[in-house]
Amino acid sequence: MSANPSDIAVAPPAKVERRFSERREKLLSFLQNGPGMFGLILVVLFFASAIFAPWIAPYDPNALDIPARMQGPSWAHLAGTDQLGRDTFSRVLFGGRVALKIAAIGVSASLALGIALGIIAGYGPRWLDSLLLLLFDTVRAFPVIVLALAVVAVTGPSLELVLIIIIVTSVPGYARLVRTSTLALKNTEFITAERSLGASSSRIMAKHIMPNVVGPLLILGAMDVPVVVTVEAGLSFLGLGVLPPQASWGTILNEGYLAIRETPWLVIAGGIPLVLTTLGFTFLGEALRDVFDPRLRKGR
Amino acid sequence: METQLAIRDLSVDFRTPAGRVHALRHVDLDVPKGKILGIVGESGSGKSTVIWTVLRLLAGNAVVTGGEVDFGGKDVLGFDEAALRAYRGEEVSVIFQDPMTSQIPVLTYGQQMLDILYRRRNLSVAEKRKLAIAMMRRVGIADPEMRIRSYPHQFSGGMRQRISIAMALMMDPFLLIADEPTTALDVTMEAQIMHLMRSLQAELQATLVVVSHNLGLIAQLCDEVVVMYAGEVVERGDVRQIFYNAQHPYTRALIECDPARVLERSRLLPTIAGDLPDLRNLPAGCVFAPRCPKVFDMCLTVKPPLYDAGEGHDARCHLLHPEKGDPSWPPPIGEINLYEPEPPSREAAEFASTPVPLKSGTAASGDGPMLKVDNLRVRFRSMGALRARLAGVADPFVDAVRNISFELDRGETLGVVGESGSGKTTAARAILGLVKTHSGSVAYRGRELTGLSAAAFKPLRRDMAMMFQDPVGSLSPRQTVLSLMTEPFDIHRVPVEDRYREAERLCDMVRFPRSFLSRYPHELSGGQARRVGVARALALQPQLILADEPTAGLDVSVQGEILNLMGELQRTHGLSYMIITHNLPVVRHIADRLAIMYLGRIVEYGNCDRIFARPAHPYTEALVKGIPRPDPEKRRSLVSIEGEVPSLARRPSGCEFHPRCPYAQERCRVEEPLDRPLEDGRIIRCHFPLTD
Predict the structure, then answer these.
(1) Is residue A3 within 8 angstroms of chain B, CB to CB?
(2) B342 touching A (Cβ < 8 Å)
(3) Is the pLDDT assigned to residue B571 strictly greater than 90?
(4) Would you call B455 an interface residue with chain A, using a CB distance cutoff of 8 Å?
(5) Which residue in chain B has the smallest CA separation from A12?
(6) Which of A9, A199, A300 is closest, CB to CB, to B346?
(7) pLDDT band at B335; cut points 50, 70, 90
(8) Does the CB of A7 have a partner CB in chain B at under 8 Å?
(9) Which residue(s) pair with B30 in the sheet?
(10) Is B638 an interface residue toward A (CB < 8 Å)?
């Protein structure tokens, strides 16, 4: 049998094999998802218009031009002007920057905090789990707007405050979800295997639990972006967030609301981007969920 | 003979992004009425695809590219939805592998069984209930009037499988398909289910198709056998013909590789070299040619037809060609073995020639046992403290492991055997400090392990590694093989010059293809994932390996490979093993000592050969006899032991085995037996050991 052991012992050259990647399959299935592509286009437009606003915007968003106030759309002012003659189109673009900033920082910070706290609650000692859960539930018991009103009443309105309120109120949702997935993973064999090798708890949490819980959460995060944008717009509309003269979709809507009898264009110009952004992120999030959640793909 | 089901020239493809997988090609098989047909094959053989086609339950990406399925004169592939609903359940029903997942957890068995009868509109609910109760009684459920109100989680695995059988028989189908009906069960349960299926079949004259990779089950149960490989029928015939006069080299391979067949100890197990062919690009000739020890030129170019080997026995092998074949083929089974174990890898051979260095930091003295477990006890809380107080339970704990003691020397293998619930896995985890011990001691080279802090235990983990039961599930799913293999170095901060090189060294050691280092666990086969598990366990050159069901979930040929690999690594590295299994044939070839566990206690402990030759405890005897032999002539007529493992919360009085013991006497019911030595050094826990 061992006529020529050297034949067997010669190892094949180590090359990284080329295989048909699952990623490519997922990409294909995403490209075929109509609403998903539509959502992606809207989201890209949102990002591009917010980032490049200073270059795209035809006017300074805060430049007053009283003689040209409350105009309808024209070539000079694509979306008309407001009570002070400011160019609404430019203001909408700059308002997008505020929305993007709040959404990007708010969602990513709450995701990061939510994932960390959720894993700690799920994997850590029981008393810590109970404590964190109590905290999450306490925060979740407050309606966002009411909490914001209460805080603003004490401190006065500011953009940073909006951000903090958004983060504090969305962390518990993510953390609870992560905690549940962590609990399910905690007793799987591969975690026991890591423990038997001597891996520390922090290593297990960071390297073996986190990669397995973030996937669904990122999708949830994408779907939460419109919520955050609306909360910001809503708080600004109520005068609790961004302060005039800074442009925000909420403040544009607020000003438009006051002048709605004179010109409807302000409300329309402030509302359309809000609607499109919400639609875009929702479609994108749902498409991502369809692509990445194997349970939904089976049998198609 | 009348046929119930005839499959003619069936071909099925699966559309995948990587191309078309030709999963079944020209499959022909007949299921005679009133007989049991077995379909045998390893994973990837297409045996499940055949039954899913018969049931018309193929996945959405499957395409039937040709052939027909004839069921009692009806064309199954032409059925519309309404015809299918009438056909499934009513005419053909299935017993699934895992009764845990195939039953509805939120409905009682009564509701589930009445639902099955929904098409019988002329029956009243009371009549349906009566029918269900009668069927439960028929499959051996005691007290069915009460049990029909139970939920699946209140039943044990064996009981659940009995109910699956009852459910499948409710509509009195023409054909019953059993898909791996005993794979999820213990040996003693397997024997009981096998016995039940055989007696029901004889009683009802039912037609049965049993799909399994377990040759013992097939030999014990079936009248006719179809052997499948890589989507083709390679051999079919009467069960005796298949087991005594196998014509296809693959059938020979399956029979020779079965660990239950190889009786003598410390012989390497035979294996089949190579892997399944890629079913997207099939070889021009015979599909088995790349792995066949008898391959000749014709096999590589011409697809073999099913040659007639007489008496309704066909095999797809050119060795049977009237002119070009080999007239001396096949050699008698048992005298000439076609399949040999693989030679040791170069890495292992090199290692064998160098003495194993004793590592610093651990006690280097060779005196004393490597591992000494003394009166180890592990308890789990069964209810909260408050609830226990309210319910008046003084001791709200159950003993998973109850005062076990054993020793393991360097280079020695201890096999720990028992049914599920015997506490064997818990014992291993307690030794490694993964679950808390209640009392007793675990000493590794004289150093006490119980009560060590995680930090103090960590350096010792380099010396002790554990292999887990589920080959794929014990690998972190989002890590590549490369990072999984080198992770032990990171954890223990062992400086490595080149991680990649180190991983390649481990790959060669366990014969894992180097090119797969970038793969993720779910892209590996069971055998490959098991090799990664072995490599991880060996990465830091441990002294002691605790292996939990090292061959679970692996195909017969791969089982041999893994056991050989473990044996080889033991010889070259001087490893000590503690192997935990419910499958006695697995440890027979590798263990020096055995500990048989029942309800958290060791009931028999001693030399492996002596225990196999003459089991002294009735439980051991039941386990040894419970192994289904791959021999259709030696069918057991009786079940070795009745009943099931009792709940840990309700330990029987006296000897805990007495309710299931065929030799139990009055004394066993009242008096607890103590450990006592036999003349040959065994320790046994029984009042009346089977010594005569």
Answers:
(1) no
(2) yes
(3) no
(4) no
(5) B514
(6) A9
(7) low
(8) no
(9) B6
(10) no
Best interface-test mutation with A: which of B342, B463, B474 has the largest number of A CBs within 10 A? B474
Whether A193 has its CB under 8 Å from any CB of chain B: the answer is yes
Q: Which of A1, A20, A194 sits opposite B476 (nearest CB)?
A: A194
Which regions of chain B carry the CATH code 3.40.50.300?
1-91+175-341, 368-463+549-628+643-692
Q: Is A194 on the interface with B (CB under 8 A)?
A: yes
Phi, psi values for residue A131, rounded to 5° = -65, -45
Q: Is A27 on the interface with B (CB under 8 A)?
A: no
- How far are the Cα atoms of A165, B207, B640 from residue B665, in angstroms, in the given order? 74, 41, 18
pLDDT-wise least confident of A129-133, B366-370, B629-633? B366-370
ipTM associated with this complex? 0.79
Query: Which of A17, A199, A300 shows the shortest C-beta gap to B60?
Result: A300
**Record: fold of B1-91+175-341:** Rossmann fold (3.40.50)
CATH 3.40.50.12160 is right for the domain spanning A31-63+75-297: no
Q: How far apart are CA B201 and CA A107, in angstroms?
A: 62
Q: Which of B35, B176, B33 lies closest to B94 in space, CA to CA?
A: B176
Alpha-carbon distances, residue B279 vs A5, B24, B316 (angstroms): 30, 9, 18
pLDDT tens-digit map of B80-126:
999 998 898 889 999 988 777 888 889 999 999 998 888 888 888 89
The distance of B278 to chain A (nearest Cα, Å) reads 13
* From B341, B461, B468, residue closest to A192, measured CB to CB: B468
Lowest-pLDDT choice from A238-242, B74-78, B290-294 = A238-242
The pLDDT of residue B191 is above 80? yes
Contacts A7 to B, Cβ<8 Å: none
Owner of token pair 């490979």: B561
Q: How much is the mean pLDDT over chain B?
A: 85
Q: Looking at this protein, which amino acid is placed at residue A63?
A: A
pTM, two decimal places? 0.80
Report the C-alpha gap between A260 and A51 in whole angstroms: 29
A vs B, Cβ pairs < 8 A, gives 105
CATH topology of domain B368-463+549-628+643-692: Rossmann fold (3.40.50)
- In this complex, do A5 and B346 lie within 8 Å of one another by their Cβ atoms? yes
Q: How far is CA B61 from CA A25, B19, B87, B230, B276, in A?
A: 14, 11, 22, 19, 22
Which of B473, B487, B500 shows the shortest C-beta gap to A188? Answer: B473
| CB atoms B516 and A17 under 8 Å | yes
| Beta sheet of B447-448, edge-to-edge order | B397-408, B371-381, B439-444, B447-448
Structure token digits, residue A7: 């034949």
